[in-house]
Amino acid sequence: MNDKKLLYVAIAMIILPLSLAFFGGDRFRYPCQDPDNWDKEFCKMPRCDVTRTCPEHIFKGQRDPRLGPPTTRVEPMGQTPAPAQCTTPTQGANCGK
Description:
By secondary structure, the protein is an all-alpha fold. The chain has a domain at 2-64. 32% of the residues lie in helices and 0% in strands. The protein contains three helices and no strands. The longest helix has 22 residues, at 2-23. The chain is flat, with a radius of gyration of 28 Å. The mean pLDDT is 76.
């Protein structure tokens, strides 16, 4: 009897998260994270600036996803110079290895 109850609990523990993931739909923490709302009034300045939920605030430090992928490739910086060699006598953990 106890094994049967454990089996039912295990099945419920598996089915519950899967059903929530499947039927949950797309959820966004802020309404302006949803690309469908970017053109709506509440996602435009100055209204969203008060609550700091504008797309410019939400995606800070990242490329704005509304712009799509960049058209030009940014070249990496040149090679950095090698660090100077240790000139003190070969004592200590970092010198003379």
